Amino acid sequence: MEEIVDRRILRTKQMLREALMELIEQNGYEGISVTQLTEKAGLNRGTFYLHYRDLQDLLDKCSDYMLEGWLSIMRDFNPLEAQNSKYLNVPNPQIVKIYEYFKQNSWFFKVILGPKGDPAFPLRMKRAMHDHLEGNRVKFELDDNDFLVPSDYINEYVLSVNMGILQHWFETNMTKTPEEVAIISTRLAQLGPLGSSGMKKLRRANKP
């Protein structure tokens, strides 16, 4: 019986999360009321207040939940394995798993990172990724003397590139598969923008 109740609670919370994102996409966060939300979800106001204090509490907990799902995948990511050159043409399963998570939960990420979403959320993602990168630096016992470029610049580059890829993928309605995006992100990571664009090959061809 307890398991049935737990499943009902999980389903109720998911209905409220999805209704919130639909309304944000339509009206923006500021234009939403609890009544609109519960009507959209097919629930009553009392049910909403059993789980959340207000709309901001729902948004915060929804964001926490989705971030934790992403970070749980990132914790298993091996940056050393990601440097393997075979992944320039074959999708890295670890990166595919990350983009599959974003695709499965695009109802949230596409909206929250979009023009009517929460401006604070991309910053939260960046902070979480920054902490993850710094954790890797400690894990692999790297210090600033090991870097050709200062680590804070590397972190900012990695954060900006990956956020840009993700947002562009959503803006283009995810026409590319997670496998294709995994190869794109790997090529940019391993070859950089010049190597990925073919400019280096062009430069060699024009070399006197």
UniProtKB/TrEMBL annotation:
InterPro entries documented for this protein: Homeodomain-like_sf, HTH-type_Tx_Regulator, HTH_TetR, TetR_C_Firmicutes
Gene Ontology molecular function: any one: DNA binding
Keyword set, alphabetical order: DNA-binding
Matching Pfam families: TetR_C_8, TetR_N
DNA-binding region in chain numbering: 33-52
Keyword DNA-binding carried by entry: yes
Domain HTH tetR-type: 10-70
Domain of life: Bacteria
Keyword Cell membrane: no
UniProt-recorded name of the protein: TetR/AcrR family transcriptional regulator
